[in-house]
Amino acid sequence: MKIASVSALLVATSFLFAASSQAQPVMPQGPGPRHRAVNHAGVTYYAVVPDAPRHDMMDTTGRGLLHYRRIMMQGTTPTPQELSGQWRGVNRGIVQAAGYNQFIKEIKPQNGRWQGDNIQVNQVQSHQVRYSGWNPIMKSSTMGYNPAAERKGQFAVQPANQRGVFGHGVVFSYRNGGNAKNDPARLLEDRLVKIDDNHMIGRATANFGPIRIPLSYFVLERVEQ
Fold it and tell me: pTM for this structure?
């Protein structure tokens, strides 16, 4: 809907509401479970946005790093079983600024341990992920048949070690994930905590011996299958 149409609708709604309650001022309507705030002429109304929760954790626009740090400190330690499956991911931090905003992680038991990797997806702006995000980048085999999603960065899922402020987070170790010795991914390590049954939040660092360089916070949302 065009902005002009929205403005006209809001003005008409205000007029009808005022006429039906002469002694009462115009008050905002809502919100309902799928409403988003809309401000017009200094008055806040609530408009329905299909398929968009009011507090969408996967929309990182307007969210600072301290916001994610606070949430992560409040999270709980997930079990490997709770991590099992595919997860849509969004980054917030240096990695996002470099143009790597979204990804998909897949975690599953393999050879007696829990293992994961990252499915590469076509990148979109943060506010567009609900409508056009997380489309895997497909690559063909050497013969040109059976295209499959491109995957990069394997990691081993390791228990929380209780070290540091995020010590309650499980560890995704790329050094122990089976990546080639010359793969820069081996420098990466993630800490991850549980927010609810369908959301996790993590922090990615690049580790050079004892030196840890923060790269991003990231939010994961379970892919229902």
Answer: 0.73
